[in-house]
Every structure is written in structure tokens, then in C-alpha cells.
Write a structure and sequence with these properties.
Number of strands: 30
Helix content: under 10%
Strand order of the largest sheet: 1-21-18-17-16
Shape: globular
Radius of gyration: 20 Å
Mean pLDDT: 94
Low-confidence stretches: none
Strand content: 25-35%
Oligomer: single chain
């Protein structure tokens, strides 16, 4: 009660710009509006009532692909159609002492369902009869350390733990791996302000790319803690050497290869605590050697005055992102749709899982959207695909995270609060 009263008194701030203006290549960016304490507006996590599910957009249908999971965060589709799901959460935090701000944040994150212990497991879901529902779930890999991203390459499954990338031998059709892990590369760990690490293989199979989020909101823990963070790293598989590929990306995830341009794309969670209208999360192509602003500037060269000392030389080089995804939507999942199931309108466009805000009034995110692409670039406004994660009384039955296209071309969505995987198809495919 004390925490709630404190937040109410000192953070009565709300959005003044319609959320729609925070999307697209040129979002509206008003002046910052910081408050003494950050705006906290968390939807309380409550279980899905029996028989209830998210709302699919007109022309689409959704069903429960799998339930009874333990905080499912990320998905990977194997060549035989099996679905891997990382059941995971943040690793234990180092003791940083007591702070009022930390206490308040822990209370509200717990309310949002974000403080459950990590299962440290990757499970395998199998839909043997192809009816869009997984009949079996097996513990595929256990004893991991907050696993997140997965990628399969030449008989090896690479897993991005919170502290390193490891590899395991994989055989098609296997339901369990018991072999010990092979360490591929260390990843920045320790405080792990942002713990989720994604991983993807290069098209030629010689390199891995890994995302590492920042260790702070805007560098307040010192830039020494940000080495190789807020970045996409490149790991050479032959030498196991790591280098900085792209930087200034506060919390990147959702590594995906653009099917038309061949470019590597990510979604990025931007900074908090300068008002409900700032800063839009975004998706962007990432260029070798590119710098995208964090922490010194946002959305190109808009300087963040909270950061000291400033780096005007870096700000001058900051690349403007390709497409904004709304302020505080917590966009995490990204996958390009290369299949034909959804028809030509959806071909080569991007599905995005928006986990939902904590730092915005009114709430934003809590849905899955689609952004059309043409010639490798976003070509129109976003379209809601899956909504209804918030109840009529403003509770969160679910929060979408990872998204993936299964072997049939359907969209799978990991729901870490609802502990389910949802499957979305065109309504015509559902009724056929």
C-alpha cells in the first residue's frame, strides 16, 4: 500500500500523444516529461478463465497450441515441425542493497507475473497429427541458465543462456538431449539488467549473431558496465572470437533475416522514465559498425539530457531506426512471414510480439501486430493480429513474447503470463 501510494503521488503523468502517432518511420516525439518517480502502470497478472482465449483479428482464428508451460518466452521451429520453447526467466540478481526504487519495482514486477523463478528448461512440443494442437511435451534440455534464443545449424543446436552461448548435438526427431554443453562464447552477464539474449546463424553458417541488452536504463550504472552491451555481437564459429557488430541498441531481441533484402533485423526496447510518450520501441535493420544512439540519443539524434558526460561525436553518427513500434510497448518478438498460408498481403511482412508496458499511462502493447513490407522495407501502418490479453477489468490474462512461423505457415505466439502457446491461422484455414 505504501509503495502504491508513493507511486500515485509522485508519478501522475500520462500520454498526450495518441499511440498511433508512435508507430511508423517518423513517429511523433514530444518533449520529455520526467517525473520524480517513474510512471508505473502494471496490469496485474491473472490466469486465463476456462474457455477464454485472445481475440484474433477479423479473418483470423486462434487456438491453444499448448498449455501448462512454465513462463514460456521464446520459440524455435525444428525442420521436422517440432517446436522448441524456452521456459525461462531472469537469473538471480546480485545483492545491490536496498533502495526504495528497487523495492517498488520488484513489487510491481511481481504483480505483473515477471518475478517467477526460471525453469531453466527448453521443452519440445510435438503436433503428431497436424491438427494444430501439441499432443506431447517433453523436457528437451534442462539445467540451463535463463535460456532464451535458439538456432539450429549443421547438426548443432545453439542456445543463448544469460551468460554464454552453448551448443548441443541434435538428431532429427530426438525428444531429449543429454549430452554436455559445448561453450561457444561468453556473453556479458553479472547484473543483467536486461537478461534476454537471442541468437541466430548467418546464412552461410560461419557466424552467429547474438543480442545483449544494456545493464541500465540510460547508463546510470556507469559505461564500464556496458562493454559489449546494448549491442548485436558477431561470433566467428571457426575461431570462437567475438566482435561488436552493431551498438547503441538498448535492449535488442527478435533477430530475423529479412527475406527480401537479406539484412539482419531486430526489435529494440527503448529507454524509460521520460514520460508516457517517449521513447518509441522500434524495429530496424542493423548495419555492421552501425551505432543507434543509446544512451546518448534516441530515435536518431534526439539527445537524452540525463546522460553525462555526453558524446556529441557519437550522437552525430546515430542511425535513425527504420520503424517505430509505439512507446513502452515492450516489443520483443519478431519474425518475417515467408510462407503463403496468410496470402500475398502478408508475404515477407513482420509479425511482432508486444509484451506490454509498465511505464505508460494508458497501457500500450499487450498484443501481436503485423507490419507489411515491400522490397525489404516497411510499407504501411501496423495491423492488430491478436489482442484481448487484457481483461475488461484491466487485468493481464497473458503477455505475448516470442513469435514464430511453424512448418505449416501458422503463427505461434509464446504467452509467458498465460503459460500457453497460441496458434493463429486464417479463418478459412481453421474451418477447412
Amino acid at each position: 500500500m505504501i509503495a502504491g501510494a508513493t507511486v500515485f503521488v509522485f508519478s501522475r503523468e500520462e500520454a498526450t500523444v495518441p499511440i498511433e502517432q508512435g508507430y511508423g518511420p517518423n513517429p511523433t516525439l514530444p518533449e520529455p516529461n520526467p517525473t520524480l518517480l517513474p510512471t508505473i502502470n502494471v496490469a496485474e497478472a491473472t490466469p486465463w478463465p476456462e474457455g477464454l482465449k485472445p481475440t484474433a483479428a477479423q479473418g483470423f482464428a486462434v487456438n491453444e497450441f499448448a498449455a501448462g508451460l512454465d513462463h514460456p518466452r521464446w520459440l524455435h521451429i525444428l525442420p521436422n515441425g517440432d517446436v522448441l520453447v524456452a521456459e525461462s526467466n531472469a537469473p538471480p540478481k546480485p545483492d545491490e542493497g536496498f533502495s526504495i526504487r528497487g523495492f517498488v519495482m520488484d513489487v510491481f514486477q511481481g504483480q505483473a507475473g515477471a518475478e517467477v523463478p526460471s525453469a531453466n528448461r527448453i521443452s519440445l512440443l510435438r503436433d503428431q497429427d497436424g491438427d494444430g494442437v501439441a499432443e506431447t511435451k517433453t523436457a528437451f534440455l534442462t539445467g540451463l541458465f535463463s535460456p532464451f534464443g535458439m538456432t539450429l545449424l549443421e547438426g548443432k543446436l545453439y542456445v543463448a543462456n544469460a551468460d554464454r552461448i552453448v551448443a548441443f548435438p541434435y538428431q532429427d526427431g530426438a525428444t531429449e538431449i543429454t549430452a554436455p554443453p559445448e561453450k561457444i562464447a561468453d556473453l556479458p552477464a553479472g547484473r543483467n539488467h536486461h537478461w534476454t539474449k537471442d541468437v541466430i546463424a548467418s546464412k552461410d553458417g560461419t557466424k552467429l549473431y547474438a543480442t545483449v541488452g544494456s545493464n541500465s536504463n540510460v547508463g546510470e550504472n556507469g559505461m564500464d558496465e556496458e562493454e559489449n552491451r546494448a549491442a548485436v555481437l558477431e561470433i566467428d564459429l571457426a575461431s570462437k572470437q567475438t566482435r561488436l557488430f552493431a551498438s547503441g541498441l538498448r535492449n535488442p531481441n527478435g533477430l530475423s533475416w529479412n527475406p527480401e533484402s537479406g539484412e539482419l533485423w531486430v526489435v529494440v526496447n527503448e529507454r524509460d522514465e521520460i514520460g508516457s510518450d517517449l521513447v518509441p520501441d522500434y524495429m530496424t535493420s542493423v548495419k555492421d559498425g552501425g551505432f543507434y544512439g543509446w544512451p546518448y540519443s534516441y530515435y536518431g539524434q534526439h539527445v537524452d539530457q540525463r546522460v553525462s558526460p555526453q558524446q556529441p561525436d557519437l550522437v552525430a553518427k546515430a542511425i535513425k531506426p527504420d520503424y517505430a513500434l509505439g512507446p513502452h510497448t515492450a516489443s520483443l518478438g519478431l519474425t518475417f512471414n515467408e510462407g503463403d498460408l496468410f496470402g500475398p498481403t502478408f508475404k515477407n511482412g513482420a509479425f511482432i510480439g508486444q509484451h506490454g508496458s509498465w511505464n505508460r499511462k494508458p497501457r500500450s502493447g499487450y498484443k501481436v501486430i503485423f507490419v507489411p513490407f515491400a522490397s525489404g522495407k516497411p510499407s504501411g501502418p501496423p495491423q492488430d493480429i491478436l489482442t484481448g490479453f487484457l481483461s475488461a477489468d484491466d487485468k493481464a490474462h497473458g503477455r505475448p513474447v516470442g513469435v514464430a512461423i511453424d512448418r505449416s505457415g501458422a503463427l505461434l505466439v509464446a504467452d509467458d503470463v498465460g503459460n500457453r502457446i497460441w496458434r493463429v491461422v486464417p479463418a478459412s484455414a481453421s474451418s477447412s
